[in-house]
Amino acid sequence: MSIPTEQPERPLPPYQGLARNPIPGERQIPQKPRRHKASGWAKVFILLILAFMIAFLGGDIRQMLAGSTTPARKVVAKTGPLIHAPLNSDQINKLQHLSEYINDKTLARMYLSRMTLDQKLGQLFMVQYWGYSYSNDLETMIHDQYAGGVIMYGAQMNTFNQTKNDIARMQKKAWMPLLISADEEGGFVERIMNIYGDRPGALETYQTGTGSQYYT
User: Fold this and answer.
1) What is the pTM of this model?
2) Concatenated DSSP letters of 26-72
């Protein structure tokens, strides 16, 4: 005669909280939880939102899905000088009387708006070169690296015509008109002595005691 004993309750597997009592030895299939259907008010609310989106955003949505029929505008960066040769006589006349049409500040802004970063940086430099006349290194600096100016020393100014021709060649190769300079002080620091001869410095001029040489 068997004596019934109480079996301890074991936790049910997931999703079997509402399943029938398991039979020993029978394989149990987990049951998925039931989904709650949306209430009628929730459906109405969703439909109202969709109707609002179609009414006010329908055109934009269709354009996004189908693709814009109007091609996007392309912004083309304009670089380079404002003036291109050859020029006709009317253009030359207007350039010679440019102050009547535009002021210096406006013209400078127009140039800057079309300059690249390399050109803007190059314009900040005044370069010097070695040798006795125009050289390939100088041309690279003023033409390819957009130097804004050139300083000349006595070695590069041997005669008047040679100096004049070298400066003209520089200006022809430059992207923008160059500032040409010379470190001329007179006395111990003379750069144009080959052209104009020896000129006294500030101390020598002072020691003369007269002002007749100050403006010569």
Assistant:
1) 0.49
2) PPPPP-PPPPPPPPHHHHHHHHHHHHHHHHHHHHHHHHHHH--SSPP
